[in-house]
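Cross-check.
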Amino acid sequence: MGLGDKISNKAQEVTGKAKEALGDATNNEKLQAEGAADQAAAKAKQAGENVKDAAKDAFDK
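Predicted model, tokenized:
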């Protein structure tokens, strides 16, 4: 996985956490849901990248 992908995924996860926390603080359910969705999407992308890395490592060996 490229460094750019790792940074992008982490940034999306952090943004999601911030949105969710702001939603919690302001009692904004829409913002809470958006934050949770951002975090889930980032984690799914990360999992996909990890699978690609594992396949590449297995193929290289």
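Helices lie at 3-26, 29-60. The first helix runs from residue 3 to 26. Passed to J.P. for a second look.
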